[in-house]
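Hi V.,

Quick status before I head out on leave. The structure for the redesign project is tokenized and pasted below; the design run finished overnight.
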């Protein structure tokens, strides 16, 4: 407290440093992890398809592209539509994982691969681990 300045006029410390400056690190990490894993899977299928077809590489690459909007809005400071883009991406990835369960060639392995990036996207979107003061 400065001399002669009442306590009520002091400026409160900024909370910008504690929030990360408007960047969603969990959304960016989930998007990069999901895209990276699917592009790696597409490359592996393209190199050695085992008993399957190399067309699966195209499918995995397109699914990997689905994560890139989440990365883009997560690294832009205070993007106005970040929460909605992350929620749409999270729901889409969950639906793709459920679709993978029904596909004979993928099964539970695809859902297990999609679990970590989906969890990170859900945290970034505010589906889980929300602060008590935030409005959803």
């Amino acid at each position: 407290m400065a001399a002669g300045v009442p306590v009520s006029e002091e400026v409160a410390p900024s909370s910008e440093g504690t929030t990360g400056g408007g960047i969603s690190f969990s959304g960016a990490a989930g998007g990069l992890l999901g895209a990276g894993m699917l592009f790696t899977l597409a490359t592996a299928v393209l190199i050695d398809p085992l008993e399957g077809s190399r067309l699966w590489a195209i499918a995995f690459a397109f699914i990997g592209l689905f994560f890139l909007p989440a990365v883009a809005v997560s690294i832009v400071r205070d993007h106005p539509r970040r929460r909605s883009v992350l929620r749409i991406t999270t729901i889409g990835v969950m639906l793709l994982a459920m679709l993978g369960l029904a596909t004979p060639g993928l099964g539970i392995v695809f859902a297990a691969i999609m679990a970590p990036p989906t969890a990170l996207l859900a945290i970034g979107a505010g589906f889980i681990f929300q602060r008590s003061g935030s409005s959803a």
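Above is the designed sequence. The chain has one domain: 23-125.

G. will cover questions while I'm gone.

Best,
W.
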